[in-house]
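Render this sequence as a predicted structure.
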Amino acid sequence: MKATHAHLLGEFTGHLDELIYYRNKKNGKLYVRRRFKFKNHPAHPVFTKIIQNIYALAPSEEYKQNLQTYVALFNTNLPEGKKPLHTWTNAYTILMFALQKAFPETVNLSTLTRDQIYSQNLPCNSVKQAIEAGLLAPVKNYELLTGEL
């Protein structure tokens, strides 16, 4: 839901009541959404552990920059039926879950380590390798995205 502000501070963002206010940096609009409430579901602890583990791998700044470049290139020529990516974390999460799907017998995201990535030469080590392995959709000039995890 788009929101307008009347008598609020100029750049109001944050939590108020059960709503979250935030401004989209690309279009400058203020948005409002309800605060998400988790339902009791058995998959939540597993998903939480996976997300914590893949971000504990601590991707390098160059890798993050390559993912940001990938997001920009992906969004300029959006493939048919795909939704745009907003941040590098979207691309990183998609990449890691695609890795698990491509290598189900060897990759478990809840226990994945950097040593395992290097020893098994997994294609998530760079964005270029991920695209060549089919983990991410190809984009123009992806050959330049060689920053390592």
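Summary. The radius of gyration is 18 Å. Helices lie at 43-56, 61-76, 88-102, 114-119, 127-132.
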